Amino acid sequence: MLVLVHEHHSERDPAAFATYWAERRALTEAVAAIVGRGVGEGKFRAVDAYLCALTVLAQDESVAWSSPGREGRAPMGCP
Questions:
Q1: Are 53 and 47 in contact (CB under 8 A)?
Q2: How far, in Å, CA of 77 to CA of 42, rounded?
Q3: Residue 18: band (very low, low, confident or very high) from pLDDT cuts 50, 70, 90
Q4: Rounded to the nearest 10 degrees, what angle do helices 5-12 and 14-40 cross at?
Q5: What pLDDT sits at residue 47?
Q6: DSSP secondary structure of 6-60
Q7: Which pLDDT tens digit goes with each residue over 30-77?
Q8: Distance CA 12, CA 3 (A)
């Protein structure tokens, strides 16, 4: 069974995990607003701003996990 790191930590500290998701939603919405503004001004091509924000943030997270020197180690803050 696949257990995501976030799910594992949510069981240990539900309140902190709720804060994490609230902050993550706010970040996603802020990035989506930037993308939406760029689309509206004709600087970006027409895309779903929220989906684009999710994609950009997911890519950023994947790069953070696979950065040189982090092989075999959990993400920062994880045991």
A1: no
A2: 40
A3: confident
A4: 140
A5: 96
A6: HHHHHHH-HHHHHHHHHHHHHHHHHHHHHHHHHHHTTSS-S--HHHHHHHHHHHH
A7: 999 999 999 999 999 999 999 999 999 988 877 766 656 655 555 555
A8: 14
Q: Torsion angle of alpha carbons 50, 77, 22, 39, nearest 10°?
A: -20
Q: How far is CA 57 from the centre of its chain?
A: 4
- Between CA 25 and CA 23 the distance in angstroms is 5
The size of the chain, in residues, is: 79
In 3D space, the residue among 4, 14, 9, 3 whose CA is nearest the CA of residue 77 turns out to be 9
